[in-house]
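Is PBG placement plausible here? Inputs below.
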Amino acid sequence: MPTSPLIRLGTRRSPLAMVQAQEARARLCAAHGWGESQVELVPVVASGDKVLDRPLAEIGGKALWTRELDQWLVDGRIDMAVHSMKDVETLRPVAIAIGAILPRADKADRLLGAASLADIPQGAKVGTSAPRRAAQLLNLRPDVEVVGIRGNVATRMAKLDAGEADATFLASAGLDRLGEDAVGVRLDPELWLPAPAQAAIGIECRSDDTRVLDLLAAIDHAPSRAEVMAERRLLEGLGGGCSSPIAALSETSGGEIHLRAAIFSADGAVRVVDEVRFETGDDAAPLALASRLLAAAPPEVRKLFEGPA
Ligand SMILES: NCc1[nH]cc(CCC(=O)O)c1CC(=O)O
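Reply from A.M.:
I modeled the complex. Tokens:
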């Protein structure tokens, strides 16, 4: 057995990021018959973890989750980087490739602090900094007050306990991975659409690193990749980032994908929803869905999106 690690796997330092990195390491080791020491976890601080007092959309968007890990990857300080695909920008540097998407976890959001959306008290403060969650909530419950809340999962749960908000949302996937499976109530993803690429872990590498690309191909989960790529393609077509209220849900069955998506006005008053079924690999279908959503949206919603790049 070689003593030096074969692979340096970069990750953010939050507890959820570390759990996801451990899952990535376990899958790599299982697929290749390695001992755990063959993959060294390399925690890297992301800008997004440093600025916690303002919404992500205001301070630079999803790049704040990827900038440092991208740099470490391109410099060769790490060989792979693990990400929540929900946090990864649609347009990636050409030098970086998504080598594997792991089997996706539960795509649903969970509501904390109330037994259901209808049970949130009139006028209650609901904490979320995600434009999608804010708009989707106000669409259903225009009476509540949305307040900003940021930080990692534990921080947000603590802020809820401290009374900063009466209720909040968290991704089921993150809670489950942290062992918090009894927290909150699951919102049916058919009725409360999740974020594009929610619950998916992706592992990136250098585009020209064929050795690592081959290692990652062995743990890639094809149906999860097909869904995540379709949802990312929709985002690309909408020209949306983390500042745009976009929700999407896709399901694969056989070789077919069913993709549903909604866009909202920031205040939730407008909701445009549409869906499409297509064969895996049909890159045009999610773009066509994006065009239809934009065409059906009133001008004040359309202007929240920059349009296809
Ligand atoms: N935006 C932060 C973020 N990025 C990924 C997850 C959860 C895990 C996932 O969706 O894969 C979360 C926390 C949340 O939204 O509750």
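Short version: The chain has a mean pLDDT of 93.
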